[in-house]
Amino acid sequence: MEPLEAFAITAPGLSRIAARELIGAGLQVDAVESAGVTFKGGLREVYTANLQLRTVSRVIVRLARFHARTFAEMERHAVRIGWSRFLAPGRRFEVRVTSRRSRLYHSDAIAERITRAIREGTGAEPGDDERSEEREGERAQLIVVRLERDECTVNMDSSGALLHMRGYRRATAKAPMRETIAAAMLLACEWRADEPLFDPFCGSGTIPIEGAMLSRRIPPGLDRVFAFQQWPWSEPGLWSRMRREAELEILERAVAPIIGSDRDEGAINFAGENAARAGVAGDVELVRSAVSEADIDTPPGWVVTNPPYGIRVGTSRELRNLYARLGAVMRERFVGWKLAFLSADHALESQLRMELQTLFRTTNGGIPVRCMTSRLSAPEGEGR
Questions:
Q1: Terminal CA-to-CA distance of the chain, rounded, Å?
Q2: In CATH, what number is assigned to the domain containing residue 297?
Q3: In this structure, is the dihedral angle defined by the CA atoms of residues 343, 346, 351 and 357, taken in order, positive or negative?
Q4: Domain of 201?
Q5: pLDDT, tens digit, for every residue of 97-115?
Q6: CA dihedral 162, 167, 168, 171 (to 10 degrees)
Q7: SS3 content of the chain, % helix, strand, coil (to 5)
Q8: Predicted pLDDT of residue 175
Q9: Of 140, 287, 355, 371, which is the most exposed, with the fewest CB atoms less than 10 Å away?
Q10: What angle do CA 157, 84, 147 make, to 5 degrees?
């Protein structure tokens, strides 16, 4: 069987980070695009991507690519696709269509033609429950169809629920960040597991939890149910072996201290519940305290955090003071540490009074943000 062509979809700005993850997992990267990364392989490679990748939103398999300027042309190609490898009789599915700059532009009419070809080829039935809160194994199989300048690409989703939904974060504080972005921050700043990690605005604990999972080598997809498990040609034995092998690689505990703090007691309680569900409660220390009280008694490491932007949480004056205080605390008590944070406002960044560099740009909750970094060097001739 020819290798599958797969595509790991990412949030904007994360594709290069995801490409490094793919290479680290032993997968062959073919192309890095703005929306994600193309790679090739068989079922093992698709399983690996879903199991191991921390910054990817969804993994799709490209079934076909063809030119279609008429519905007759589209139907002729669609009936030739090997649908039965992916959809068993009676399996529910959903066709999701986007079309840009193409003669075929009516998404419902395109979906109707693709649906007809699938039903004729497999006996599967359309039904949209991909967004439901039901158990992931009962979700409808998602087929993604994209037309761009009359070129049609048909893709089969292998993931099911979006991959940032690890399963541990049922309790959230204000303005939560996606788990994939938290992981991207840690990977982009090249935080090492043997370095202390501190988040002074931890909220529901996403950054410390992702750090603990990374430190202990816990795969983000270990306890999930995926769409590929319902494919007729799936190999349950292979998937079980891969899960067992991944479990054997998990370390008993995090190597270095991982600490999260927040002034909101409710947020700290949420973070503790989430850490317990993720299996890392013993690896993360959670403390209720304001940023002005931050003082960590460990060797220098990384401060990685997602402070308020002022768009959903806080007011302009309060935030200017907060960022100014954060900068002062970092300079006074965290000499020798390195800082990485998400920012949506240049004016707030300037309150830190630090030399900053941009690691990547993305969106968080629909808000354009930058991941910024700085090293808190000691004055010449001084230690911490």
A1: 59
A2: 3.40.50.150
A3: positive
A4: 179-219+234-249+256-375
A5: 999 999 999 999 999 999 9
A6: 80
A7: 35, 25, 40
A8: 60
A9: 355
A10: 45
